[in-house]
Amino acid sequence: MNADTKGVLKTTISRSSRVSIIAMVLSLVLMLVLAWAPYWAGRAEMRLLGELFLYLSLASLWNLMAGYAGLVSVGQQAYVGLGGYLLFALTMFGGLHPVAAVLLAGVFSAFLSLPVAILIFRLHGAYFAIGTWVIAEMFRLSFAQVQSLGGGSGTSLPIGVVKSLAASRSGRESLSYWLALGAVVFTLGFVFFFMRSKKGLALTAIRDSEAGAAELGINIWRSKLEVYVYTSAITGVIGGLIFLQKLRISPDAAFSVSDWTAFVIFIVVIGGIGTLEGPIIGTLLFFILRESMADLGTTYLMILGLVAIVIMLKAPQGIWGLIRQKFDIELFPLSYFVHQKDASTQKSSGA
Amino acid sequence: MSESSLLLVENVSKSFGAVKVADATNLEVNAGEVVGILGPNGAGKTSLFNLITGALSADSGTINFKGNDITRTNAAYRCKLGMARSFQVPQPFVGMSVFENALVGATHGAGLKPSAANAHVVSVLDATGLMARANVKAGVLTLLERKRLELARALSTKPSLLLLDEIAGGLTDSECESLITSIKNVHLQGTTIIWIEHIVHALLAVAQKLIVLDFGKVIAAGQPDEIMASEQVRQIYLGVDNA
Fold first, then answer.
1. What b/e string do you get for A200-233 counting C-beta neighbours within 10 Å, with b at 16 or more?
2. Residue-wise DSSP of A192-247
C-alpha cells in the first residue's frame, strides 16, 4: 500500500511494555522476600503461603489447559492424587528420598496421561469434562484397592521418611515451604515461557478459533496433547508436594473433585480465564475469602458461590479481564507491539 | 491429469445425511491459474473449499496437491504444503492483535523463524493495507478490515495455492477495486488462486477459468466468456425458471 513511503518507515517489533517491565522487577523482589520467609514468617503463615503457592500452581496449569487449549477438564484431581500416592509408594516401598519421589511422580504422570489423552480426546465439550472426571474416579477406586497403601482409609507417611527430609520440625517446614515456592516459580515460569513461544501463539489462536488455527498450519490435536501431558506431569509433582505437606493420604482426600478441581476452577474463572494474571488474582481472592470466613462453616461455601455468580454476571472475563479491558495492560509480556518510526506518520498505539 | 496440475480433485463426494454437498466433483487447477467458482447459495462452493483444505474429510474420491495424495491429511498439513484459505465468515483470533493474527500463519503455516516471520508479517500487512491497525485487537476490526485480515492471514502462510471465499462480499465499489488490485498482485507473484465470488465483475477481472457449481456438481467449466454466455449457467445462476 505505502510502497512510496516504505523506505522511510522503520518498523520494529517489541514484546514488553513499561508496565510489564515494572511487574517483572517487582515479582523478582517479591520472590526474594518470599524466599526469605522462614526467617520472618511464623509457622502458620508459612503453611498458609505454601498452600497458596500450590493452589496457584494448580490454577495456572488448569488455566493453561482449559483457558488456552480449550480442554475443560474436571478431572485433574486424577494427577494430584496420583502424584500424592506415588510420593507415598515410592518412599515407602522404593526407599526413595521424598524430593526424588515427587519428581518421579511427575514423570509417571506424564507417561500415564498419554494413553488417557488418546482415550478422552475422542470426547468434546461437556463429554470431555465428564470423561476426565470418570478417569479420576477410576484412579480413586484403583488406589482404594491397594491395601499396602491403607486401602480406602489411607495411610500416613512413615516417620522415617518424614525425618529423611530434615532432622528438625522447623527444618522440615522450611524445606516444605521452599519446595512449594520453587514449584510455583517453576510453574508460572513454565506457563509464561510456553505461552511466549511459538506454541503459545498457536494455543492463543486455538483459544479464539479452532477452525482458523487449523487452516493456518496448527495441528490442533497435537497442540492440545502436548498441553495435556505437560500440565498433567506438573500437576502430578504439585500433588506430591501437597501430600508431602499433609503427611497423610486417603483416596477421598487425594482424588477430591472439590478440593483440586472445583476450587481451582473458581480461582481461574474469578481471576480471569485465558490470561496469565487471572489465576494469581483469583488465588489471592480465594485465600482472602477463605481465611476471613473460615469460622462460618458451610456459609463460607455459599458466599463463595455468591461471589462466583456476581463476578460471572458483572465481569464474565474475570477480574483481570475487567482490568485489562479498562487499562489495556499486561503484567506478563506476551503481546507483540509494532512500532513505526517516521516523522510524517503517527506513532502506533500500544507503545 | 496434466503434468502441470497443482491441485487435482477427482470424484470427491461428501454427504451430510441426505444432503450431498459434493457429488463426484472433479476439479483441476494448474500452477499459475486464477480459477473462479460461481454458483447459487447452497451449491456446495464453501464445502468444496472445506474438502480441499481439510476442514471436511471426503467420503470418497481423492485430492492431490503438488503430486501428494492429501485426501486423508489434516488442515494443518495441507497448509504447510502451501495451501491457504480465507473464510467467508471471517474467523479472526479476536483476542490477538492484527499483527499476532498474521504471525500465527507465518510461524506455523510458513514455518518461519521469529525474525523472518516478523519481517514477513510486516510486508503482508503493508500489502493488505492493515499496517496502521497492526496493534489493534482483531475483535474490534470493521468488516472490511476483517476481510483484509483474512487475506493477510492466508498470505502470511506463504501459500502457493490461495483459496478465497467471497472475500469481496459486502465491500463498496472502491474497496472492491483495491482488493482486486491486491489479489492481482498476489497472482503476479506466482500464487495460484481459486476464488469463490458472487460479485461477478470482480471475478471476471481476474479469473482465467470459471467453474459453475450447483447441488454439489460441476455443471460447467471453461473460459469465462463462454461460461457467462452459456444458457444453462444463466438459468441456474440468475435463477431464471427452467420452463
1. bbbbbbbbbbbebbbbbbbbbeebbbbbbbbbbb
2. HHHHHSHHHHHHHHHHH-HHHHHHTT--HHHHHHHHHHHHHHHHHHHHHHHHHHH-
CB proximity list for A341: less than 8 A, separation 6 or greater? A9, A10, A11, A12, A347
DSSP state of A71: -
Residue A3 has pLDDT above 50, yes or no: no
Q: Judge: A198–B109 Cβ closer than 8 Å, yes or no.
A: no
Q: pLDDT (tens digit, 9 = 90+) per residue, A37-68? A: 888 988 899 999 999 999 999 999 999 999 99
> Which residues of chain B fall short of a pLDDT of 70?
1-4, 237-243
Question: Is any Cβ of chain A less than 8 angstroms from the Cβ of B144?
Answer: no
Which pLDDT value is given to residue B3? 56
Note whether A142 contacts B: Cβ–Cβ < 8 A. Answer: no
- For residue A6, the model assigns a pLDDT of 47
- DSSP for B29-93? EETT-EEEEE--TTSSHHHHHHHHHTSS--SEEEEEETTEE-TT--HHHHHHHTEEEE-SS----
Q: What is the mean pLDDT of chain B?
A: 89
Residue B55 near chain A (CB below 8 Å): yes
**Is A342 a residue whose pLDDT tops 80?**
no
Interatomic CA distance for residues A28 and A32, integer angstroms: 6
Question: What mean pLDDT, rounded, does chain A reach?
Answer: 89
8 Å CB contact between A1 and B129: yes
Q: What are phi and psi of A329, to 5 degrees?
A: -125, 160
Residue B197 backbone dihedrals phi, psi, to 5 degrees:
-155, 140
Q: Name the helix (H) or strand (E) containing A172.
A: helix A169-196
| Reported confidence tier of residue A16, pLDDT bands at 50, 70, 90 | confident
pLDDT for A17 equals 81
Q: pLDDT grade, residue A348 (50/70/90)?
A: very low
Chain mean position to CA A14: 27
Write down the ipTM of this complex: 0.87
Q: Any idea what DSSP says for residue B198? A: S
Domains of chain B from N-terminus onward: 1-82+159-243 (3.40.50.300), 92-158 (no CATH)
Higher pLDDT: A107 or B181? It is A107
Nearest by CB to A215, which of B75, B114, B131? B75
Q: Which residues of A touch B97 (CB under 8 A)?
A: 335-336, 350
CB nearest B109 (choices: A207, A216, A349) = A216
Residue A14: CA count within 13 A, CB half-sphere: 13
Is A31 an 8 Å CB contact of chain B? no
Looking from the CA of B2 toward its CB, the CA atoms found within 13 Å total 9
- Other beta carbons within 10 angstroms of residue B62's beta carbon come to 14
